[in-house]
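Module 6 notes. Inverse folding takes a fixed backbone as the condition and produces residue identities as the prediction. Think of it as a translation problem where the source language is geometry and the target language is the twenty amino acids. Below is one complete input and output pair. Work through it position by position during the lab.
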């Protein structure tokens, strides 16, 4: 299994980019990862089309969405184990643009995840997602990080 992260726009702030790269490096000890930054602009329908162009039907899509499931770190680790048991080859995590995501992207997602009831910048959301995925793998592997 591998993770692919498809998000709208670039991580512009060097500090957030450094954290993003740190957690991608940590995650790479457990799973192969790839990031795809789709061009922002043109509205959520255009951005949605760009997102969908980076997905194929064999990929399992997980959308970060304020209306998604609000779950604990342990529940996320359980979801990842379920995905592994289903022998899914690639999980794609989608982070939309400032206007949200197009309905077609919402429909394409098999799982919707909310990071919090709070609102985060996109840079923050990316880092929080990566950290939580790393934390989930430490839970799965029984490493002490999550304590």
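Target side of the pair, the amino acids:
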């Amino acid at each position: 299994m591998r993770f692919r992260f498809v998000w709208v726009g670039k991580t512009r702030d060097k500090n957030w980019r450094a954290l993003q790269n740190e957690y991608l490096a940590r995650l790479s000890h457990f799973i192969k990862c790839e990031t795809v930054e789709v061009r922002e602009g043109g509205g959520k329908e255009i951005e949605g089309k760009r997102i969908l162009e980076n997905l194929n039907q064999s990929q399992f899509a997980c959308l970060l969405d304020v209306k998604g499931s609000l779950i604990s770190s342990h529940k996320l680790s359980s979801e990842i184990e379920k995905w592994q048991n289903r022998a899914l080859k690639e999980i794609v995590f989608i982070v939309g643009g400032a206007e949200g995501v197009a309905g077609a992207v919402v429909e394409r997602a098999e799982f919707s995840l909310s990071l919090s009831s709070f609102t985060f910048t996109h840079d923050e959301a990316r880092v929080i997602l990566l950290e939580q995925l790393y934390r989930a793998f430490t839970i799965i592997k029984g490493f002490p990080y999550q304590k």
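Reference fact for the lab report: Residues 2-141 form a domain with the Alpha/beta knot fold (CATH 3.40.1280.10).
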